[in-house]
Structures are given as structure tokens and as C-alpha cells.
Fold this protein.
Amino acid sequence: MFEVRVHGRGGQGVVTAAEMLSVAAFLEGRHAQAFPSFGSERTGAPVVAFCRIADREIRLREPVTAPDCLIVQDPTLFRVVDVFAGLKPDGFLIVNSNKSFEELHLGELVRRLPAGHAMVVPAGDIAKRHVGRPLPNAALLGAFAALTELVRFDSVRHAIEETFPGRIGAANVAAAEEAHVHVVAAETAAGVTSHAATL
Amino acid sequence: MADTIDVAATDETSQKLRYYQKGTFTVGNRLVDAAARTVQASEERSNALTSGHRACQGCGEALGARYALDTAMRATGGRLIAVNATGCLEVFTTPYPETSWQLPWMHSLFGNAAAVATGVAAALRVKGKSDVRVIAQGGDGGTTDIGFQCLSGMFERNDDVLYICYDNEGYMNTGVQRSSATPPAARTATTPAVGEEPGNVFGTGKFVPRIAVAHRIPYVATATVADLHDLERKVTKAMAIRGARYLQIDVPCPLGWGAASHDTIRLARLAVETGFYPIFEAEHGRVTGVRKIRDPRPVADYLRPQKRFAHLFRAGHEDPRVARLQAMCDANIEEYGLVDDETTG
Amino acid sequence: MLKQIEGSKAMAEGIAACRPQVICAYPITPQTHIVEGLGELVKDGHLQGCEYINVESEFAALSVAIGASAAGVRAYTATASQGLLFMMEAVYNAAGLGLPIVMTLGNRAIGAPINIWNDHSDAMSVRDAGWLQLFAETNQEAVDLHIQAFRIAEELSMPVMVNVDGFILTHAVERVDIPSQADVDAYLPPFEPMQVLDPDEPASIGAMVGPEAFMEVKFLAHYKQTQALRLITKNAGEFRARFGRDSGGLIRSYRTQDAETIVIAMGSVCGTIKDTIDEMREEGFPIGLVTIVSYRPFPSAALRNALAGAKDVVVVEKAISVGMGGPLAIDVDEALRNLPHAPQLHSVVAGLGGRPILKASLHRIFREAVVQPWEGTQFLDLNVRVVGREIHRSAKTRRSGPTAEALLRHLAAEERDGTEKGRH
């Protein structure tokens, strides 16, 4: 089983991110479970959502305490929430930012993860260009597909199109595609070979 | 010389009635065309509320319900379902294992008659049986107090229900307690006639017909068991309309009011003639007609025969609140235009 | 058709396939998505022949359903927590009148203190009313139970409450097989009422019944629930035949064959418990689970059969009868009392107000039940430190202020101090 935890703020589409990821996994014939952790719902408040992916029925219902992958949609959360709690030693990390990990003061943490498991992606900027608003979730899923290879990009594309109708869906797919390309390029440049995540 | 009144101003088949004698209100049905006679006058009436029920002698509510439902049955060709709130009417008509209802009838709870009726109406629509109509009914307690939320909801949605409130101004079935329809100064078990302000206090109370008018529903009317023609006309008119409708009928309660059981009609008439109970109609938020007061009477005439107001007349003195009640009546008369300047002796 | 879908939406589609004719909608977290989903299906024409009514309160919601059901149509509504309490009078009324209304309960804690998260206190508050109460373990079962519920309700002429854990199920997106309209139509025949308001055959419904007959009326309601035990099993069997999967029924056993310790629970927590059991089994622990699906009628006989061989029974539940203990534990105790070698009963109250039930904590408590059993009710993962602090603080002065707020302050202080939370 592969467990993902998505952190962000209300209004950034954190819950939708987890749901779309679960749809992508479903489209590949896998079992997937996505659910939010509810705090008071208001724009700007910290929000957490979870997604589990497995090849058999997922029966567990507790929050994800030891994620295999962390997706951080809003880097301002680092000071507010213990985002990294429980991240597995060989886990993956994707952070929405146009800064580097060093600039985000995460250099040491990232060095403890296996090479090529951590990536900063300017997802908000990418989204702004394609969708017109800095909603990073679709782009981050494109990055996720590239980084973990747990789901194919094509599945992510279908999941986005199922969730968002017409033009908006297309724009989000374009954002996801750009983020996907970004990650692949960064990995190639870093000389990282394929490290497809397993369930 | 006889006085004349119109039975129904809008009814083309109406004729002017002639009274036997001036100064009385006795109208002989023999003098009226068959078409203009009341439903009650007909042997073909449905007796939707039939005999054998356990109401007190002189119960105004039993009278009002019989009048209203028989009229509604005729208006709908017998295609009618009634939903009843908990209260006197429900209790005295269905003493286990008997029922005195000859139409489909349901009792659910105290405060939900309007909502249950909404459900029945919806079911009939879904089944394509919109010829079958729905009446919700209850006393003032079940309507103006505990039933108010469901009533307002039904009004707001404009559900196809006629709600009839039999207003005897108190929770009578449980032993005469005060409701928001209890008039000021009236004695009830929870507004006893003791202390500095004996009886129900001024500055409280709720007149639901006005609130119903404010909801802008298709039809609102008040009526009285003292005017059978008027009551039947209003029920007939209401049944010809689709949507939320409200009818509040003044029904004296001999037991609760401390009145003689033979005085029910007389008291109901006095309530009208003093301006204590305004009789009017309204459609979509506007008053469209009033029942004029033929012979205005001072409010004391209405209050004296009722023991619930006895503390206002102790030892030959008239309590100053009688004057306040008179002012209330005068205000009603003015607000609704109940007295024409031409109407004099 | 297999879909990756939010639980509420799946339920809405399943309920729509049951062809309800009157739906009453009043919003309350966490069931709102269900009635919203149904509203859309009605408005866009997917669900035809249905009146969707926006009512002004939960009391109105169930009252409208009562009227509709009495007038002979299939009626549905949904609520949770505070809303259920607000319609309480109508809940008893519907059962007493024998109206086959189906209602979803999105299980949520009852306040004060106000809490929107999941537990079973709302279901427990009406367990004596005469409704059938079924609990869904997964969103698949949530969909399936509604379909079974309409059929059981109408065969029996009793209302049925389908319990689905708020947020955990209602807001989870997972794989659900949405039944086809054809299959549901074949399984669920049109509604034929036992009683109906009909001008062609007038009857009075809802009369007063005095001391001379009330005992008998209540006995018949109780007897009906006994009949329901058989009906529920029969319907689950027919469901399996038609839809090809196990859903519903009275109870479900998981790895209880040679189990010495058997856990009993209801609803979604059973999934987490199954994972725990598998892990413990790998360590050689003879442990199993009995999931109770039908809480009312309470499946005493089935439970006795399932638990007869166990040495220890651990009841894990998301409710507390304040002043007494866990209501499910009490009911289980009653069922097992007269067994010749009755197992030891251990009562665990967990997950109140949405507190996550962690697999690690279950591992711990299941072992503890056997080696270090406790008396009475065990509150899982209780923050003993904070509780102790509050007991001490409030004893010092009369006007000690609201308890809930004080506890939150203690918690905040603890987090600030970085003190390790004292877990029991």
C-alpha cells in the first residue's frame, strides 16, 4: 500500500488533489481511498487530505501517519504544521515552490531521503499561466506521476478531465503536463534513473 | 322592516336574505333558494365529522370542524384528506377504538400537522391524484405556538394545503393553559387571576392571520361559528384555490372560557360585534374584504358572560383593563375598517 | 457500474435507483452531500416521479416524510446528530405508526460541546424508538444497505435507519459498484402500503390508545423486530443472489474460527480492526472480529453462536451512555450472560467526536484486554494528563467556567510546552 498525504490551505484544492489521485489509481485498476481530515472549513486554514493506493481492498480508515509521499501545496505551512511527521525514510516529497530546498531550509531533511525522491515544483506559477489562478493541485499531480511513477501521466490526465469540465480541465491538464516535464527534466539533469515507487 | 345582507357578494346565484324580525339575526333557511342554502342545511352533507364524538356540550371547535369539513367535502366532491394536530379535536373525535371521522384522517404529532399535510399533498401529486385535496387542522396551541415553525414552512413553500386553526384561545385539552392566542387579561391555569395583573398580561400574544398575510400566501381568512354562511363561503373559496391557504375560526370553549354551553354562538357573535375578533379575507398579502360590524357593542358585553374575565368585574367595579381591551377593539375596527359610518341603528 | 466516487454521491445514486417518490431535504453536516446529490438527480430528470422538498427543519423533514408515507408513497430523508434529536418526536411517531420510511443517519457526535465529527452517539440516542438500525462498514455496503432497507421497511411496515460514519464514509472517495436500475427494480418491487390515506377507503390513522391496549401495541412492535431478524437475513441472501456480493445481514465474522479473543464493533472502524487482526494473527495471536450490521433488531442469538468459543470479547464502540458505560457493550453483555461458559467482556469506548482510532492503539488495547484486563469502560487514547489537570483545576473554585473550553486551553498549553501527551 502506498500512502500519500497532501498539505495545503483551504481553497487550494487539497481535497480535490487527493481525490484526483485516487481516480487516477482507479483508472489503472487499483484500489484507492481518498479522504480529508476536517478542521474548521474556511479559506486559508490548514487542510490535510489523504490518499491510499493498493492492489487489494483498502480497509484501513485512520489518517495517514506514515506517508510514503508528502505533497505540500503551500510552503508557508512549514512554520505552522508539522508537515513532515511520519514521512518514511525512503519517502517522496513534492513541494510547491519556486525556491530551492536550501532556500526553504529543507536541505538537510531532503538529503536524508533517497536521491531523486524530493522535488520542488513551481506548481502555483505553472497553474497561474495555464489556468489563470495559482491552484497548484493538478500540476502537483503531474509532478507526482513523474516523480514516483506510481500512476501514469495519462491516468492523471483522465482524472483531471473527469473532475474539471471543458476548458478548465484542459488548462489543468496543460499545467500538469508542464509540471511533469519539469520533474522529468530535473531528474535527468541530476542523473537520477528511474525509481518507480511500489505499493 | 327586515334587514338584508348579501350571502355572498361575489356569488351570482346569491339573493338577498330577509330576516324574520328586525333586531334578531335569525334567518330562516326556508326563505332561501336551495342553491344558496348552507351545506349544513342539506341532508346530503357528508357528515365528515359525524355524531358520537366526545366533545363537551356547546363545543365551538366541534361545530367549526363540522361546518368546515362538510363544506370542503362538498367543494371537492368528497376527495379530501385531513391531517389533525394533537388537541381537543383529535382527542374527542378518536377515542380508542372508535373514530367519528368519515374521511381519510391522520393524526401525527402536536406541532407537525402542516408538515405532514405537505407530505400528503406531495404524495398525491406524485401519484397523479391532484383531485384529492388536503386539509391540515389544529387548535391555536398546535398552530400559533408549537406548530408555528411547520406552518411558516408550509406557507413559505406555498404547499397545496388549507390549514384550519380552530382558535379557542388556549390549550384546552390539557386543562386550559395560556397560548399565544390567549387574549390579554384572560384567566387560564397558567395566567391565574391573582397578583398585580391578574390573568394574561398585555403586551404579549400573536395574531397568526396577520402573519399568514405577511407570507403573501394565496388566501387567508378569519371566520366565526356565529356566521355559518360566511364560514362556508370562505372554505368553498379556499378549496377553489391551489397553494397555501390559512383559515382561522373563532370557536368559543364553554369550559375554558367559563361560559354557558348554550352561549357559544352568542359569544362568537359578540366577539365579532365588539371588534374583538376581526373577520376579514386577504390574498397575496393584501386584505381584500372584511365583515362589517352591523351593531357595534362595547367589549364589556362580550367579556361579562365569561368567567375567564370575571376578575375584571369584581364587586361592581370595572377594572381599568376593560378600557384597554376596548381600545384594542377600537384599534381593530379602525385597522380593518369594520364599521361603516353609515351603519347606524 | 464500478466508480471511484464520494460515498455521499454513491449513496445518492443508490437511493435514486430505489425510486423514492418524496425526498425531504434539510442540510446538516455530514449528510448534506447526500441530499444535494439527490436534489441534482431529481432536478436534471435522472430521478423521475419524485417530489424533492426543501423543508425548514429536521422536524419538518421527517414529518413531511410521515405524511407522504401515510399517503402511500416511498419516502426518504437524511439527517445526523442534532438534526436527529430535533426530529425525535417524529422518529418515535414514524415507528409507532409503522411507516416504512428509510432515513440515512450520517453518524455524528451530539453536543454540547458542538462537534461535527463522527461517532455513534446519535444512533444510540434513538435505539429504543422501534426503527431498524443497520450499520455500513464500507461505502459499498452503505449503498447496498439503502436498497435492502427500502425492501425490509416495506415488507415489515417499519422505518429503517441506515447508519454511515460521517466524514469517514460520507466524504471518502473510494471504489463503489453502483447497482444498475434494472437490478434494483428486480430486487425492490413497487411500494404496497399496509395502510394508506385514501378517499375511496377512508380510515383514521393515529388514534389515541389507552392502557387497555398500549401494552399489546408495543408488544407487536417488539415482535416485528423479531420477525425482522429473519427478514434481514433472507433479504441479504436475495441481495447476494441478485448483486453478487455480501452486504447487510445481521453480523459478519472475520477469522473467528479458532479465535480466543473476539472483537465486536460496528461501522467503518471494522476495516481498521481487520488490518489489526491480520497483523496480530501473523504473530500467532488467535483473534477475530464480529461485525454487527443490524444493531436493531439486536442479533442476540447470532452473536451467541459466533462468540460461544471465545475466552475474551472486546467491544469497541463509538458511544457512551453517560453514567453507565458503552451501550453496545451493555447489549452484548445481555446477549452473552447466559452462555454456559460466557467469555470475559471488555468494554472499549473509542473515537468519540471524531478522534481517529489508530491501528497501533488497537494492537495495544486488544493485547491488554487479555493480559491486563480493566474494570468497566476503557476510554481509548484518553489524554489522562489533561483530564487530571482539569479535574484538579475545577475542584478549586465554584465558578470554574465551561469544561470544554478549559480542556482546550490545557491541550494548547501542553502543545506549547512540548510536553509529551500522557497516553494511557
Notes: Chain A has a mean pLDDT of 94. Helices of chain A lie at 14-27, 107-112, 123-131, 137-148, 153-163, 166-190. The CA atoms of residues 61 and 122 of chain A lie 32 Å apart.
